[in-house]
Please model this.
Amino acid sequence: MTLLKIAQIGHPVLRQPAAEVTPQQLQSQEVQTFIDDLVETMRDAQGAGLAANQVHVPLRICAIEVKDNPRYPYKPNIPLTVLVNPKLTPLSDETFENYEGCLSVPDLRGVVRRHAELKVEAWDRFGDPIDAVMRGVTAGTFQHECDHLDGKLFLDRVEDPTTLCTWKEFGRQHEAAFRERVIALVEKWGS
Ligand code: NI
Model:
């Protein structure tokens, strides 16, 4: 396993839409090894997800996993999921406000509006189809990662810049209230 370098905001790779992955590419040893490294890098950095272009590989692949994450102690757990060529379709007009951060945006968090119910269509790392519905906070995580593949950062979706804060000030000023909102969301959506 190799830990990969995570691109930081300002690097153009984060702003370019990533390329579709062909079945041949996905089967290659190179891409399979890359997926192992992407997962390892996400875990090492304690991310809830990591997109391939965040580690300088402009392909439509992202990994998502939440397992008692100390960076996001209020997030519901999500089993390891690798999405290849994902397509997200909102299932309703319902949205919620999510306080997000990103491994490519050091020490900054902000409030982003996300769809509360999504259909997720993708391949898994073996090319088998994924057809799933994600709801609540977990749906927010999926939208954040898939945005990366379109060259978007959560900052682009922050409607109220006064919500922007460092991680330290998030902990001091906003975490308690946000945690209550997350608990309510998890009760409502089950995730
Ligand atoms: Ni991110």
Notes: The chain has a mean pLDDT of 96. Helices lie at 23-27, 29-44, 136-149, 167-189.
